Sequence to fold (149 residues):
Amino acid sequence: MQTLRRGLVAGLLAGLVLAMLDFVTDGTPGRLLPEALHWFGITIADPTISRFAGFFLLIVLGGVFGLIFGALQRERIITIRRALLSGLALGFVWWLVFSLLLANIMSHDAPFSLDFGRFLSTFPIDLLFGVVLGAIYFQLQQQHAAAAV
Fold:
């Protein structure tokens, strides 16, 4: 149960980092945030509300991926190497599912079509999400172990 709780907290915080990065990565603040809504076929006419909803959705999805990350650890104490590599793998899965597969399906492209510009704008940030998730999880695990001693 502790691993799920740590995973949820780490995922929410990593999702917050991802949402903030998506807010500032382009010339117009928050222009990429409504894209998260489009992954699920949600369209909101007001751009301000759409940005806030996309920001919130990225945080919630980060929490879901954090729960998955915590469930994969199975109540074990993990090393920093394993935490970062597991996070990196989960960031890659995030990129495959959301930035590649769902984004292409919702825009009516072939499921795995990719152009170089979109690859460069999504792949590094999604991998960074996974690394941040693993690092936060490891820090929470270390804090819990230090408090138990």
The chain has a mean pLDDT of 88. The radius of gyration is 16 Å. The chain has five helices and no strands. Residues 2-148 form one domain.
